[in-house]
Amino acid sequence: MTFSIPGLAVARGIAIGRAVLVGSSRVDVAHYFIEPDQVPAEIERVRRGRNAVAEELQRLQDDMPHDAPHELAALLDVHLMLLQDEALTSGVKHWITERLYNAEWALTTQLEVIARQFDEMEDAYLRERKADLEQVVERILRTMKGVAHPVAPPPPSRRKTSQDLLLDDTMDVPLVLVAHDLSPADMLQFKKSVFAGFVTDVGGKTSHTAIVARSMDIPAVVGARVASQLVRQDDWVIIDGDAGVMIVDPSPIILAEYGFRQRQMELERERLARLRHTPSITLDGQRIELLANIEQPADAAVAVRAGAVGVGLFRTEFLFMGRNGSLPDEEEQYQAYRDAVEGMQGLPVTIRTIDIGADKPLDKTHKDDHLNPALGLRAIRWSLADPAMFRVQLRAVLRAAAHGQINVLFPMLAHASEIHQALAQVALARAELDARPQVYGAVRLGAMVEVPAAALMVNTFLRYFDFLSIGTNDLIQYTLAIDRTDEAVSHLYDPLHPAVLRLVTEVIAACRAQGKSVSVCGETAGDVTMTRLLLGLGLRSFSMHPAQILAVKQEVLRADTRKLASWAQQVLTAEDPSALLGA
Ligand code: PEP
Ligand code: MG
């Protein structure tokens, strides 16, 4: 029976495919696709993990003192029995062989399948065995964690229309990922994967998981609350990334309607692609800089293809995440920054220093350490708390600057003392390179304005920095006290709130008055409904995911900044600016 699950629209488009559920195991599990010839080795890894756990449990049982409680022995029996359970072993083999899931992913997927069967059982005793099964699977996963696994390149992605599906249901159909939560690092791992769309139970429009989904340019819905409980493995689903809704088990009529809309969108994409080489100039002759936000060096090629004239934000923290705490050394970072610079073929690259914390934990354990991570040891605070680690990054960036034009951007500064400390670390990093001696290049230094305090003391910032970049994602979060990742308050997360607009306007005006460059690199920069307003407020530089550049360029080409300036002043002073936005 068809039913729909509402959520938040975060990445445009329509995906039609079969649901793949990713379990939320307490163990940090990697999800990737293996090559067909790796199937036997992957099955062997599970077998070895299972045997190791069986031996461990057996040892525990053998060594158990005679006076140990009877329940403990019974529990070990149950765990040993579950370990050999046919549904578990054959199911895991199925996911590895048929879907090419890596071993850990296959285990958590099968755990999810069996756990649901337990949930539906009448017998309370059997229902409770679910917890035992979870413990057993976690034991296997922990045992396997120490075992190295090959990270295979995922198979090429393949988009399909619903027309294909109606014609042939047996061929390899698109897969749609449904999860309770996905970390930004997980999401990045899926970046070149086969998934045609994503749905998560939690998350807000500007959570980093949503941002990465948007950068992948495939439909996504977050904040769908109980989606991962209502959808079953392999259900047919439609993701409507514009309306922010997932449709489960769609009827043929609904499928046909969405198939039609999918084709319309493809036509629109092709039309926009023609703007790639068109200069980004408004009707009144203002040149508007359209830059790219990237998460990894390989994205530079995508940025160039999309017609970006540089990188306005390289979120370097993605190089640090999901590595079990082992951070990339100077050489590895230098190579990554150099790759990004060379990938941009002479265009400037703005490298933001690490912004770990809040919804971008280094790994899952890091996340649990903090009660209120968005207000905690995040971004520049994290870097300044470990200056030696910070200078590793700064030295790598300075060295990469010998190969092209680099701007360094510091995230989340709020205090003058942080400005002084950050700049002192740059000076120290240069001195360290001089002492080696090692070649490095000149960089421009800039600060993100993403805390209201920074916006309110913009003139202090301008005394020290060559340029500013407004991070509206956090500026909105911190101005309105709305957790950007919390779907429960997402209706209050408002880029058009008068207080936010005032802060943005004042920063733009202060920079222009001093002849310093300023851009917006938060998600509002890539939101076409905001382009005219930002132009009217005086913004001339926008940084966004490459996939959004052409749509924003289309808005720029239609804009007349002289007319927009007076209209923007009205919007700025309105009690409800959103009411004027359509005007
Ligand atoms: C922002 O806060 O707007 C920004 C661009 O940084 P991030 O989204 O990575 O926090
Ligand atoms: Mg930010």
TrEMBL record:
Record-level GO BP terms: phosphoenolpyruvate-dependent sugar phosphotransferase system
InterPro entries the UniProt entry points to: PEP-util_enz_mobile_dom, PEP-utilizing_PTS_enzyme, PEP_util_AS, PEP_util_C, PEP_util_CS, Phosphohistidine_dom_sf, PTS_EI, PTS_EI-like
One Pfam family recorded for the sequence: PEP-utilizers
The UniProt record lists the keyword Methyltransferase: no
Keyword Acyltransferase: no
Residues engaged in binding phosphoenolpyruvate: 315, 352, 473-474, 484
Record-annotated Phosphotransferase system enzyme I N-terminal domain positions: 7-129
Domain PEP-utilising enzyme C-terminal intervals: 270-559
Cofactor: Mg(2+)
PROSITE patterns: PEP_ENZYMES_2 (PS00742), PEP_ENZYMES_PHOS_SITE (PS00370)
Family the UniProt entry places it in: Belongs to the PEP-utilizing enzyme family.
Function according to Swiss-Prot or TrEMBL: General (non sugar-specific) component of the phosphoenolpyruvate-dependent sugar phosphotransferase system (sugar PTS). This major carbohydrate active-transport system catalyzes the phosphorylation of incoming sugar substrates concomitantly with their translocation across the cell membrane. Enzyme I transfers the phosphoryl group from phosphoenolpyruvate (PEP) to the phosphoryl carrier protein (HPr).
Protein name, UniProt field: Phosphoenolpyruvate-protein phosphotransferase
